[in-house]
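Fold it.
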Amino acid sequence: MCTAAGQSSTIRVQSVPVASGRYAERIRCVDPARAPPRTMDKTRFLDDLQQRISQLLAGTPAADVQKNLKALLTQQFARLDLVTREEFDTQAQVLARTREKLAALEARLAALEAERK
């Protein structure tokens, strides 16, 4: 705490750019009663940060690399014998129903064989 004019205040240290990428530390006494609130909507901050990074990358070769990599991966996956998750889930349901029917038919066959004996 620092005291300015008899009132208690807090110390705030701030890095300030001076020249050619260098920073200097600036120390200030701040009265907590008059300090602005330091709350910020975190999601808004993250959205803003994501937007700025996207804008920064849009004008660089990184955007081209991303597009080319996506096209390359799509092409390679098309060569493989792959199915979508939806198709896989549908086939898993069909298989489960088929197994249930098979189990019922096996039980029926066992009952008929037991009757014959």
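The mean pLDDT is 76.
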